[in-house]
């Protein structure tokens, strides 16, 4: 077995040193009835080539975004990842290290986390950010929990244009605490002001920016109303590249900004691992979940970095912790921070502009297809169409023409007939003008 | 000795003392500024095509000011992260005996396979007709997990061990609610030796945490446990093998007793690597158990994640599993995203940690049923070898064989002036990552050593020799090598108190210099 260094002789010598007659003897504390007498009913070990063949054969059954023109978004976006990102995250010292509990020999991880926290704070326009959460949806649910702790209130208002998966995760966790969740109806044409839904018992209002249908809304007035009622405004960003083009949520008065960082460095990966971004006002830092990296000095006065404020965390506070989170998305935060460092200010701004331009071209092309209605006045790189018929079969028709033509409403709001003819479509820098033209042509054919 | 140009080719009278270097570098050990201290506006490491002129539809919300990100070319960025990487310890560099964390070798085949575009370039909401390969990996992985644990169902979506705990406790809660006992079953029993995530999870789910004491042998006190049982107990959360590295001998009695009062048995599967292929948790009375794919099945720890924490469930709990699920019909696998049944809901957007599923499956198929059992055996053998070879100079916390990790306490350091922390930092100077220290809490000055199955006997012998020498040095009064440690790391001991008292959590630009008068 290529991964196991011990030989038969080694094992015998080690048993002799221990004074045990056999390895089985070391398992003597296991109740006899529970000890297996032979191997379980699974295949025996395989060579590297055989495993590669078997798993590659499975991968070959997927028709992925590389072989079809992909216009899928709704919470996950396909962006080009520079080759240097994947090379650097595979360096052994990053890939095969643990959470930086021994800071003197983990300065590499700790310094990039400090840089990552700074980048996230700058992008979102917030004062502090943590070292990552599992993904955008769990970060969003943790933000709601944090708002309950900060305000001591138990009523939560969710925008109808918050990604339905995010809303579902919040509702799932809220059920544990008896939190009242007010879920507004989805508004594909754009949602009105939610100020009227806030009352003196409200802990927070959760909105998405751009929202799940792609609309870009100014939340400045909402932030004032929410804070005026003693509640917090949580803004979720599922497409982080948008922050290269848009006014940051912090500048609109958000109290907590959460996000899905997958769009930079991480890739699609069928939904995970992804990267939860979590940023907040500095005054809430001791109520934040997750790891925080901070600056300090060593015994000789040199700058260094450590995990800090850990009295919020489960390994110190146990049942009084702000969250049960332990492992986060370390390597994904590294991929994100490397990608963003490669882009830099100029690169990110241009990437975002390019995404917007492609989406504008696509929106105009698709809105020109007979029977198709564009529902957005504003958008970044994603928008919603109302089709003259149910969208799910149309998407299958587009697959037959080599196009992943968006996410049908029925996929996100199953069982809601009002969503059946909706199609959420995204464009990124990876979509050429030729692909856009082909998509419009194919959509016209499928609808004809 | 001189070479032909008269240049000395032997070291000569080199001074052994430290010298101050111009930039603070020390040979291969480079000081590296923050990326924000390096960039210049206008530079970029990415070339993009020209942006076509379009009328903006950003709804008057176009960003007005700069973001503040630095600009660097690709060579600068690559150098930055390579230099940072060299300031980390890693399993690829040496033995990483961090108990409870299972730092085993990460096969590179798994990295290669996870990057196949049929998994990596697949959108989570792509039409189900296009994602068959990825769903097959999920289905096959689920099958392996169920067979290895002897459990009938598995929820794949949890994103880490603690998220798996949340999943299991939520399923247990949902089951109690479904039989009308949601309001009465409010207490969860958690042994004192448990991982911090256990009480944190139970409290997060709205339960009261009731600690169960340990015996002098480092195991759950069965009598004390039974005394705490009652109709208000929702579950017990028990790690097995436990955090002291011991198998809970009374596990079946514990399960029976908890079941007897209508509670469920949640097993923290963080240490499943000790028994995989040799013992099935389903045979021990477990109702739910998370499996850290990043421990037992060797997906890389990545400096703190991402992990994956699938949860195996008993038949009683399976109906409450979170969405989505994988179902198998006629040898083909399908994803179920919508269900009007008893599922407690959704724990995260999308389909779980696909990138970890493909890696873990590659690990399982490489080892096979035989290799997985051998890996568990070797892990247990190696830990016992360390315990046996160190017990005369260090103090083992408990008698008898351990499982995959050996636990020592700090009695051997008594009156030496050296603490567990000092001892750990001295290991850094010797080229090792320290063991887990001060955990579990039930042992004073705990040192928890987990070698895993990845170490050769030569490697174990070297480690043992170093640990013996350090233990002797502590008792011989060589205090300075401990209290001043680490001496040979990129940083000397860091001031964690300062970091917490005056938190600096991000870089801020230096204040502009005063204008010259």
UniProtKB/TrEMBL annotation, chain A:
Ranges for domain Glycine cleavage system P-protein N-terminal: 1-437
Keywords in alphabetical order: Oxidoreductase
A GO molecular-function descriptor: glycine dehydrogenase (decarboxylating) activity
InterPro entries per the UniProt record, alphabetical: GcvPA (IPR023010), GDC-P_N (IPR049315), PyrdxlP-dep_Trfase (IPR015424), PyrdxlP-dep_Trfase_major (IPR015421), PyrdxlP-dep_Trfase_small (IPR015422)
PANTHER family given in the database record: GLYCINE CLEAVAGE SYSTEM P-PROTEIN, GLYCINE DEHYDROGENASE (DECARBOXYLATING)
Domain of life assignment: Bacteria
Subunit-level organization: The glycine cleavage system is composed of four proteins: P, T, L and H. In this organism, the P 'protein' is a heterodimer of two subunits.
Organism, as annotated: Zavarzinia aquatilis
Biological process annotations from GO: glycine decarboxylation via glycine cleavage system; nucleoside metabolic process
Catalytic activity as recorded in UniProt: N(6)-[(R)-lipoyl]-L-lysyl-[glycine-cleavage complex H protein] + glycine + H(+) = N(6)-[(R)-S(8)-aminomethyldihydrolipoyl]-L-lysyl-[glycine-cleavage complex H protein] + CO2
Name under which the protein is recorded: Probable glycine dehydrogenase (decarboxylating) subunit 1
Gene of this entry: gcvPA
HAMAP family found in the cross-reference section: GcvPA (MF_00712)
Reported function: The glycine cleavage system catalyzes the degradation of glycine. The P protein binds the alpha-amino group of glycine through its pyridoxal phosphate cofactor; CO(2) is released and the remaining methylamine moiety is then transferred to the lipoamide cofactor of the H protein.
Enzymatic class: oxidoreductase
E.C. numbers: 1.4.4.2
Family per record: Belongs to the GcvP family. N-terminal subunit subfamily.
Organism phylogeny: Bacteria, Pseudomonadati, Pseudomonadota, Alphaproteobacteria, Rhodospirillales
From TrEMBL, chain B:
Keywords, alphabetical: Oxidoreductase, Pyridoxal phosphate
Catalytic activity: N(6)-[(R)-lipoyl]-L-lysyl-[glycine-cleavage complex H protein] + glycine + H(+) = N(6)-[(R)-S(8)-aminomethyldihydrolipoyl]-L-lysyl-[glycine-cleavage complex H protein] + CO2
Domain Aminotransferase class V: 182-302
Signal peptide boundaries: none
E.C. number: 1.4.4.2
GO molecular function: glycine binding; glycine dehydrogenase (decarboxylating) activity; pyridoxal phosphate binding
Any one cellular-component term (Gene Ontology): glycine cleavage complex
GO biological process: glycine decarboxylation via glycine cleavage system
UniProt KW Cell division keyword: no
Superkingdom, natural source: Bacteria
Pfam families: Aminotran_5 (PF00266), GcvP2_C (PF21478)
Keyword Oxidoreductase: yes
Domain called Glycine dehydrogenase C-terminal: residue spans: 376-474
PANTHER family tied to this protein: GLYCINE DEHYDROGENASE (DECARBOXYLATING), MITOCHONDRIAL (PTHR11773:SF1), GLYCINE DEHYDROGENASE, DECARBOXYLATING (PTHR11773)
Task of the protein: The glycine cleavage system catalyzes the degradation of glycine. The P protein binds the alpha-amino group of glycine through its pyridoxal phosphate cofactor; CO(2) is released and the remaining methylamine moiety is then transferred to the lipoamide cofactor of the H protein.
NCBIfam families: PRK04366.1 (NF003346)
Protein name as annotated: glycine dehydrogenase (aminomethyl-transferring)
Originating species: Zavarzinia aquatilis
